[in-house]
Amino acid sequence: MALPFLPGNSPNERLGKERFHKSQHFNYSSGVPMLVGSEKPGIGGEHLVGQEIKPKYSVYPIGSGTGLPPWVTFDKQVLCFDAYFQETVPEAQSETYRIRKCKIYFFLEDDTIQVVEPEYKNSGIPQGTLIRRHRIPLPPPNEGQFYNLFHFNINQQMKLHSRTFTVTDCDSFTRNFLTKLGVHVNNPTTVPEDPYSSLREQLKKSMQPLRPYERHDTLKQFLDHDRKVLRFYCFWDDSQSIYVDLRELILHYFLVDDTIEIREVIPPNSGRDKVNKFLRRCRLPKHVPAKVKQPGEITDRTVLNVLTSSTMGNRYILDSLKTGAVHEEFYKDCDLIIGGEVNVWGRRVILADCDDFTKHYYRAKYGIEDFTPLQYKAPPAPKPPRPVPPYNGFGSEEDSLSFCQHLLPKPPRKDFQKFMAKDRYGLDSKVLNFQAKMITADPVDRERVFIISFYLSNDTISVFERPQKNSGVLGGKFLERGRVKKPGQELFKSQLSQYFTAQDLYVGATLCLNSINFQLLDADEYTFKYMEQHAEEFPRANMGIIISKLRSLPEEKQCEIRKFLTLSDPSNTGFIPFESIRSLLLGLDCNLSEHEVLVLGRCFSEREQTQVDVGLMLAVAQDFLKKKAFEEFPKMARAFADHDRHNFSSGWHLLFRFADGDEIDYYAFLAGINWLEHPAPPVMPEDTLKVRKSRNYKANKPKLIAQSLLNYSAVLKNLQGKPSKRPKMATAPF
């Protein structure tokens, strides 16, 4: 029973609605004014009464197939149908209608249709794309809908824009696709015969041209071998002439048209005029004719004189049997082999060698592997030496040498690649610094301290003297930066002088810089570290070479070393002071320099664990988290419970303070950094700086090498050929 239409009984249609605007039908899309919102023209974007929604794409069940959009799922998938339509030809005597064949393409990604008609020669009508690709609406009265794939089938008619097409067949992909969708595909049908096309075909077959020229198709050879040339190095044995000599030639065989070109190689000062070509590009006959054919004698076709009359003229017919044809053999690529002869119009040319492309061609096509060249000439005479005059003392040696090598002198070339690879980059200076003292009998000069810097970018050296109080000597720059020659070389000589390199500088070495001897006493941490990281360039810092030198010692010296190490460690701890083994190795004359002994000590020295106040670290951590307003401690506890501890312990040094064997008590760790439940006392800025320094300087801060202990047990294992887990190089913070 319906309620009466009285106030209070009728439902309010506006309840629950929030949009009451008038729908907008026009807007700009990509800067183009166009009609939009035509599907919801009512108040608030609702449909009008009785309005039907037009489908946009093919009717596929919702939820079937993949969840990808159709333009991704059906990308580059097209249904192809064969069809035809009948076109009326008015006011034509030879035909009244015409059957035009075409292809209908249905694009699955957006339900668009394209109709293309194949082009026929001399058809006289415009062909190609008849209907461009777009969505085609259905014929009336369903003009509001569009064609989809379910409207297509074989042996049925389709009306596309007032033109009726009959679908006759489809390809295999289309048939399989429709069958999988449950569409019953009809059997293919035949296309009606076009009377005008049949008439033109008969006329074409009945036509007999008076001059049926033969067509020689060379397109395939052109496409396969264009710009491909075989090159042979050959010579002409012209021993019968008055000048008994060999003429060097280069033979080019063009694969594109089987032609040959020969060029002559004329050496300098030979007395011969240089010509462009020895043989122009042409087809080279194998047998030289006794009489050269005149132009026009060799043709592809010949004619026969049937009738000669003064009144009726001459009558000719084509020689279909080719009775007058001249057959000549020309050189092909199979006739050219190394060691073979080529008859170049009576001249005997012998092939001696070929280039790499020619070898690859014959190896791939004919399977030839033997390409041994012929030795037809004596080896070239050695070039006479060009003595360089000795250095005269003006300018640098490299600059003076360029004046002797070039008529127009050029500046000496620098090693730009070395400069770019070993120039300063950021904090990496690429400069090796050594502390040195002067070797002299003067007691004042013996106390002077120098810093010798070697620049790896250009092998230059500079010397700086440290100022010392009450020494009586002014410090500062002692030697300007530049390349320094090694001592003991003659000044005025033809060869270039040798300069100091990076391998000549190491701790314990003696350098003679401008007649002043310096002994290198020590190096900075960067120098030691750089030389150890580039051990392949610095043999003095290569641990493999150092261990090999110790292994090559005589057996009595090795026994003496083992005995000394055993007596120096009565408690059998495996460690002895570094100074003890340093004095031993330098005193036994083990062929080890001071630098190599220091590298050995840096490699096997003992590490000292840094002790940091855990309470201070926790206080700094709480202060940092408090400033960042971090309060997600429950989530952090769940993450620790779900994941392995190794995912966290590798990055924080603080976690190791809560480690109990192989396990970490992360409950205590979280309680220590939780500033909400367990607040720590406030920290000062210097406390934060102290913790940050301890973190940046790494956990293992080494002692000085001279004051450290050496793990001699690891050294003995390496000497015995049992490589142990060698500790890392001792490094100090910068």
From TrEMBL:
GO BP term, pick one: regulation of neuron projection development
Keyword tags: Cell projection, Cytoplasm, Cytoskeleton, Repeat
DM10 domain location: 75-182, 226-366, 428-535
Coiled coil: none
PROSITE patterns referenced in this protein's UniProt entry, alphabetically: DM10 (PS51336)
Compartment annotation: Cytoplasm, Cytoskeleton, Cilium axoneme
GO CC, alphabetical: axoneme; microtubule
Family matches, as SMART domains: DM10
Function (record text): Microtubule inner protein (MIP) part of the dynein-decorated doublet microtubules (DMTs) in cilia axoneme, which is required for motile cilia beating.
UniProt protein name: EF-hand domain-containing family member C2
